[in-house]
Amino acid sequence: MTVRQCFFGRRLFDWWSAGALLWFLGCSGDAQPALSHPEASAGGEHVGDPLAFDDMSDFERPPRIDHGTQSAIEMLGMGPPDDPWESMNYEARKWYMIGKFLPVTAELFARDLGRDRYAEFSCVHCHGEEGPERGFAMPSANRMVIPPPGTPEHDWMMQSFPDMVEFMATALMPAAQQMLGWSQISCYACHPAPR
Length: 195
Hints:
The chain is mainly alpha-helical. The chain has helices at 3-8, 15-24, 72-76, 90-113, 124-127, 152-160, 162-180.
């Protein structure tokens, strides 16, 4: 007796019967996907499947971070990494940034500065396009140079970008300080200083 006969208890069952049974139960290829996919059409067709390797165009765009009703801050917290940042190697830092820092930061930007404006928040927003070439070292040369306080340039920055300056000072810098476990952080951790 074969495994198939033991499992189904009769010899008449074959793979054609298995296919017919699956079709009868509604598990055919025409069935609606069990899980909702963000790119599924209203008719239930599953389009843009990230596991469909015949269309590689999706692999080049940054991931869209949509928190929906779940908060990255609530789910991941704002605490520091288990190991001090300074003692973490490149791989550990990379996965910490991807797994915690990026989702929390994306939520902060979306919450405080606009979901539409920062819907496609990615590593590039802070590290720049050349981030991988630099090993994601900070400060990033592609960020705005922060002029010294008390200069006319600093006053212009404060008047031109009041919402961004307030967000950086009251939301992003405290969050980064907390998540990295640093005792202090300044604008120059991410932005270049004037030369």
